[in-house]
Amino acid sequence: MSPSWQACIPLACLIVLGWGYAAVAQAPAPAAAGPTTAELKVALDTLWVAIAAFLVFFMNAGFGMLETGFCRQKNAVNVLAKNLIVFALATIAFWAIGFGLMFGDGNDFIGLSGFFLQGADNSPATGDAYKGVFSALSWAGVPLAAKFLFQLVFAGTAATIVSGAVAERIKFVDFLIFSLLLVGISYAITGHWIWGGGWLADMGFWDFAGSTVVHSVGGWAALMGAAFLGPRLGKYQDGQIVAIPGHNMSIATLGCLILWLGWFGFNPGSVMAADPNAITHIALTTNMAGAVGGIAATVTAWLYLGKPDLSMIINGILAGLVAVTAPCAYITIGSAFIIGLIAGVIVVFSVTFFDKIKIDDPVGATSVHLVCGIWGTLAVGLFAVGPGVYSWYGDGLGPAKGLFVGGGLGQFITQFIGVISVGGMTVLLSTIFWLVLKATLGIRVSRQEEIEGLDIGEHGMEAYSGFLKEAGSGGFAEPGSPKGMSQSGDLPTSL
């Protein structure tokens, strides 16, 4: 080889050695140990609980749209304001006192610890490993913050139910005070009996996601509020029931769809774990009951009232969803079909029944949440498949087999006792709250304010600025119609 090629040999060796050294120098350090399976499970469970809580929180938008659409335009701001502020109030009341009364360690009647989220807690530890003051929630393997957030949105839902039933004539300040008392005291006490390890839980009462804990409690409180307030002006004239139609069925329908979506957080989220079998099964039973409830209400209204009333379709869907909330984890999809079917039928007759006894509920909240909440709670005792069939509520746990699936009356009787007990306590406390408010502040606006509309009287503004000024105090008048008469001619627009 020529001298130049000979000189390249050691140079090539140096290059190869340099590459080898660079490769060794750049070798990555040993990777740190990754998260354990248990840590990943806690993370996934927490993510699912948080997403479910966000869905339930969004139900506030659904309630706001639904109630506003079902009420008259002169009260739209008032209804929207109540639905917006009620969750803010619920947050404070539940954080300060409600969560402790409901889930804090105490006795079979009431929780006595954990106020302001204070006290020992080593969540997400579960079972015997849990050390803290919220033993009733020791089955949920998520941080305490996730437990509180999920239960908070439930408490807010109970308070929101009242808003629609007392709409168009209640003083704004009274509603605010009542919401604080309901969430902080009444809802928390009865909730402790069932979900807080209280005496009803010890009896074997089961309510998976809250047909009684949330919906019936809100329904009972709403019923008492509507009764103490009395009907709206013009609702009952000369012994006749006068229809007062809502002003915007478009946003009422949107509200129904938002609520339907929110229920996929409400019921499947109550598993408090990212269990794929549980979440999907509960979502299917929930959806089936809501769908069949809407169909059943449509047919019933068509036959009973002569027309497929949109408001009845909306309330039929919600009736089915409310009814399946208690049994959704314990039943088959076929049973959910039957539960939703019956709920859709009874909600139509319930609305007309409350009208006949002069309980004026502008949105049908008592029929949907109270009546169908009771039906759904009792349905656990009729359709539950029994312990050991589904794994997600614990090995050997769950309600006894229902009457219609080969069981006896035992579970049904327990459910009935729970319905009566929670109803009695809620009626008692709600009555005290309403009577005290009535005696001190007065709960109903003046006649003139009700005629003018609560938007102006309570808030000094209009939802649809200019519309009422152009069309009169209560709505649009057709050319040639008597002044102050609505398009339908049913009601004076000033009402």
From TrEMBL:
GO CC field? plasma membrane
Q: Which GO BP annotation is one of this protein's?
A: ammonium homeostasis
Any idea which UniProt keywords this protein has?
Ammonia transport, Membrane, Transmembrane, Transmembrane helix, Transport
Domain Ammonium transporter AmtB-like stretches = 48-464
Q: What's its membrane topology?
A: Multi-pass membrane protein
Q: Where is this region: Disordered?
A: 473-495
- Its domain of life reads Bacteria
Q: Where in the cell is it found?
A: Cell membrane; Membrane
Q: Does the keyword Cell inner membrane apply?
A: no
**Does Protein biosynthesis appear among the keywords?**
no
Task: List residues traversing the bilayer.
Answer: 46-63, 84-103, 148-168, 175-196, 208-229, 241-266, 278-305, 312-332, 338-355, 367-393, 413-437
GO MF, one term, reads: ammonium channel activity
Biased composition of type Polar residues is found at: 484-495
Annotated Pfam families: Ammonium_transp
What NCBIfam families has UniProt attached to this entry?
amt
Q: Which family does the record claim for this protein? A: Belongs to the ammonia transporter channel (TC 1.A.11.2) family.
Protein name in UniProt: Ammonium transporter
What is the protein's species of origin?
A: Chlorogloeopsis fritschii PCC 6912
- What high-level taxonomic lineage is stated for the organism? Bacteria, Bacillati, Cyanobacteriota, Cyanophyceae, Nostocales
